[in-house]
Each structure stands twice: as C-alpha cells, then as structure tokens.
Amino acid sequence: MLYTKATIITVNKNRDIIEDGALLVQGQVISAIGKTDDLLNKYADEPVTELEGRIVIPGLINTHMHTAQTLLRGTADDLELVSWLCERIWPLQGNFTPEDGYAAARLSIAEMLLSGTTCFLESMFADRYGFDGLCKAVEESGIRGCLGKIVMDVGTYASDPKWAMHPGLVEDREMSLVGAVKMHEKWDGNANGRIKVWFGARTPGGVSEALYKEMTSISRSKNIPITMHCAEAPADRIFFASHNHTPMSYCSSVNLLGPQTVLVHMVHLDDSDIAKLVETGTHVVHCPSSNTKLASGICKVPQLLEAGVNVTLGTDGAPCNNTCDMLQETRLAGILHKVSTMNPTSVPAETVLELATINGAKALGQADSIGSLEVGKKADFVVIDMRAVHLQPWHNPVSAVVYTATGRDVEIVVVDGKEVVKDGKLVTMDEQAIWKEAAWRSKEVVARAGLTKAVGARWPVK
Fold this sequence. Notes:
Urease, subunit C, domain 1; Metal_Hydrolase; 17 helices; alpha/beta
C-alpha cells in the first residue's frame, strides 16, 4: 500500500519532515519514503491511500501501562496515595478474575490503538488476572506488547506496615518469579514477534533483596528485561533512607541498573542518582498525568535529558490518569516542565515527540525496528486527520501533534504493516462488545470488593 500526500514526521536521525510525502508499505516494513510524485511514478502499480490534510507520525510507544486498571477507571479519583492504594486499587484488583483481566486488557488495548499507541509496556500484571489472557488480547488485536509479569514476595509498600496489599494480590517467589520465567518460555516472540515478556518487579519494599538479585541474574542469563516503579512518592525516599541508600544506590546494590531496565516515575532523585542512570544506561519513564493527579511530585525531566538519560513517556493506569491517550500525555509533558522550571523553552514539542516514539523504542530495545519512519523499519505509524476546526490553522506539524491533537483525531493506525484502525474505527476488535463487557464487569468487581457506594457520585443522585 502506498500512502500519499501527507505531512510525514519521520523522527529519523535528521528529524526530517516531508511535506506532500508518501510512504510505501510492503509486508511488515516500510519499503520507501519520500515525495508523493516520486513514489507514485516509481510504484505506479501499488494501491494508493490518499492522505491530503493529514499528518503521519511513528506509532506512539507507551512505556508505562497497567492494562488491568482500565477496568477501574474513575474508582479512585481525588485521593491521596495511601487511600488510593490501600482502600481502593488493591481491594479492587484483589477481587479480579482471569475473565476480568482479559476484558480489561481488551479495553486497554482498544483505547490505546484508537488513540495512536502501537506498542506498550505493561508494568505489573498479577497472576490472578490471567497472563495468558493478556497475551491472547495482544495477539488478537494486532498491537505490540512488552508484558511485565509481576515479581514480588513482600505484601507491603515501602517500609510502612499499614500499606498492606489485599491478600488476593500477594504472590510468592514461585508464583511470581518462576511464573514469569514460564510465561517468557511460553509467549515471548509470539504473535509474529509482537509479544515480548518482561519481569515487572514491584517497587522496592515489595521485593526482598534476595529475590531482586535472583531476578536480575535470570534477566541477564535469559535476556529478560525488567521494568519497575521507583522513587515515585516521598514514602519511597523514606524506604531508601532507612536502608542508608538513595534510590539508585539501592537499585545498584541489588543489580537492577542497566540498559535492560526501565524505571518508572523517578520523581525523587538526587544528582548522584542521575549520574548513576547515565553511567549504567538505565531508562526512565515520565508519567506526568499520574504524578500530578496523585500529587507525587514532578520528575526532573529537563535535568535527566541534559545529563543524557534516555527518558520516555507513559500514561500509567486509568485510576491515576483516567485515559490511555498518549497524545494527551504529550501535551502535559510539554507544558508541565515550563512552569516547574519557569522556563518556556524547557522540553519543547520536538523533545516530547521523541519521548513518545524513538526514546520509547530505545528503552524497549527495539529502536532498530520501531520508533521512527525509515526504510527497512517496521510499518508502525499513525495518521492524524487535521481537517477540523479545532486543529486549524497549524504551522509546525510537531507542535500541532503535541499541543493540539488528541487520540480522537486519529484516523488510521498501522502496526506491522496492517491497518488495525481505519476511519477512526477498530478493524481487529469489536469495539462495542469490548466497552459493554467492561462496563458490567467493572461494576461486578466493585461490588465484590464492597465499594459500590464508595466509588459513586459524591453529590446527591436523584
């Protein structure tokens, strides 16, 4: 298929933007990219999809996502972190069934595809949610999924015993670490290579040092990457200090740091932590919506980038964001640091788009195949329809994408050379069936947890 007459933001090494551009997809890859007239003359026999008035970008890469939590959207709004976790999220997740987990995964993936995400990193999928169902949902949908199976053996958070997990979520070494290795053996590389299985370690305080060290040893021997929440909230700093460590000195002591590790949030860091990230090539995920909504703090993204840390972008889960739309996340990422630094040139739109595309690909170890639009790379891209009042006029296409467009402006999504969204509609999944099932399953989970009244409207409902 030859896609023509678009403005193409390549995010290639030169960061080329091609006006009246065309892109040829053959099989799973991009075979040619250039000016429309040149490609039409050279590939006259190819079927054509005309994209005048659209902007084409590389597929968005969401490097921090809790697919199970999309079923819990709106159930824990406007709460501080202890209440959010202990009174809402953990009791709700502790009442999941594998069928709920599969429905939640389908809901998450549908929303991500419709809003332009072509690849995501699942952070911590618990055993009770049914990991096979998550893999099945990725396989059926056509998305790329790096799927973190939870690793843990301690049922608390940080060093405070009152932050106890719901009993339904507590796992031991056998269920979590050994189970993750089994899932890696079963699923890694499936779905034409679109499925990758990761270790999804719990935050320090939720994993014993012995289990961390065993996991990192297996990570290196079996080439299984690791993702983990870290230094998200002040309570995390208290935990590290209680062990006479900073966040990164602790992670270093249990062999967590390195180019196969993606650390999430990373709000409360010292200068020495940043230096350690640079030294080890460890990646960082910025989650601005989650960090602001939960009042966790603001990640030092400008300092991290200036130091040379690879920073990426993630939405986090729906209970601390309420949307899986990466385009909305780019807008906040571009705005937040301007006010936190009192510098309007801090983290410009071009940098934000890099966070959401090529930087994400680097963190996932897939920069040679996704993250930019180049000949020989996988055909993963998003078409944004700019022919609308709320999107006009525009002069800089990158600014238009980052600051103006949202997921609702996505018209076409291609993953692995296949259109999975066309005319703003899912091709591979039944959207109506997905949201209808999610609606009733969510109510069932809430009822099982005894929280129906607690999550309802605060104002009188008549």
